């Protein structure tokens, strides 16, 4: 398991590595070994969901069947684990004070299957992770907006909470407690 800081660091590294990647020669498009090497390089740069890895490999020019075979093999040997990736991403998102809706959107954007994203988010919601994230966001906005009119404080908090994907009920509770 990786922590949120390492997750972010690898994601930034992947962006810089990804910019320098080249497209596969036609002779390598059906080469399982070349595809596996490319997949391992991508995974070495940053953890990825199988959907995101699949998109990257196909964009590089590898054949669909070869990519599917490589992803299946990497999953079988536990080098690719969508659930572990999703759980790590949820921890990262809650660390950024994101809510359930925002987290699910982020996971699907990063190539996690929607059903898995919903399941992992539900587990995090049951543990109270998103509630804690909303309270932390509320504390941040209470500090930032100290001395401003109550209506302005609430509006700024509600805007931030909505952008981060928190539920209105949670935002209402936090605002009542912290921004009066």
UniProtKB/TrEMBL annotation:
It holds the Pfam family RecX_HTH2. Its main location: cytoplasm. Residues 35-74 form the RecX first three-helical domain. The keyword Cell membrane does not apply. The keyword Nucleotide-binding does not apply. GO terms for biological process: regulation of DNA repair. GO terms for cellular component: cytoplasm. It is found in: Cytoplasm. It comes from the Bacteria. Belongs to the RecX family. This is Regulatory protein RecX. It comes from Bifidobacterium pullorum subsp. gallinarum.
């Amino acid at each position: 398991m990786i922590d949120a800081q390492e997750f972010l660091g690898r994601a930034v590294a992947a962006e810089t590595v990804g910019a320098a990647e080249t497209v596969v020669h036609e002779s390598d498009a059906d080469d399982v070994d070349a595809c596996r090497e490319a997949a391992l390089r991508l995974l070495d740069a940053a953890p990825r969901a199988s959907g995101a890895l699949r998109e990257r490999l196909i964009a590089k020019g590898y054949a669909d069947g070869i990519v599917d075979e490589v992803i299946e093999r990497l999953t079988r040997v536990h080098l690719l684990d969508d659930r572990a990736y999703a759980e790590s991403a949820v921890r990262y998102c809650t660390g950024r004070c994101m809510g359930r809706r925002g987290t699910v959107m982020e996971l699907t954007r990063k190539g996690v299957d929607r059903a898995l994203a919903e399941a992992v988010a539900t587990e995090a919601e049951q543990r109270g992770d998103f509630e804690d994230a909303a309270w932390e966001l509320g504390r941040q906005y209470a500090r930032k907006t100290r001395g401003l009119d109550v209506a302005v404080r609430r509006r700024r908090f509600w805007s931030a909470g909505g952008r981060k994907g928190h539920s209105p009920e949670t935002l209402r509770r936090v605002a009542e407690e912290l921004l009066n």
